[in-house]
Amino acid sequence: MEWTKCSNVNVFPNGDGSLLPASTVLPNVIEKSQRSVIIHGLADFILIAEGMRIIIQNMIWNLRVPQFAPVAAFQIMQYLMGFRDTP
Predict the structure, then answer these.
(1) Is the pTM of this model over 0.85?
(2) Distance CA 76, CA 87 (A)
(3) Is residue 74 part of a domain?
């Protein structure tokens, strides 16, 4: 697979001072929802799935540590979406 740029222009000439969505947007969305499903784009190879799992596991929402099994959830989604390895 060959990656190409969508623009030769520097879209952040003064840098990007945005706060990380994982520490600002994501906790806010989850706190306001009764249930949340987080699906990682495993097929795009840009984001690192393990890094996202660690971020989510280390978050605390509404003063509680989340109770879930992220590995099992990701394995189920991979199966449903057809991204399983073939022998």
Answers:
(1) no
(2) 18
(3) yes
Cα torsion through 17, 55, 79, 47, rounded to 10: 30
Q: What is the number of alpha carbons within 13 Å of residue 64 lying toward its C-beta?
A: 6
Q: Which residues contact 56 (CB under 8 A, 6 or more apart)?
A: 22, 26, 38, 66, 70
Let me know if residue 36 belongs to a domain.
Answer: no
Identify the DSSP state of 21. Answer: T
Q: What is the domain range of residue 83?
A: 41-87
Could you report the per-residue pLDDT of 7-60, keeping only the tens digit for each? 788 888 898 888 888 778 887 887 788 777 776 666 555 556 667 777 777 776
Give me the amino acid identity at 65.
Answer: V
User: Does residue 61 contact residue 30 with C-beta atoms inside 8 Å?
Assistant: yes
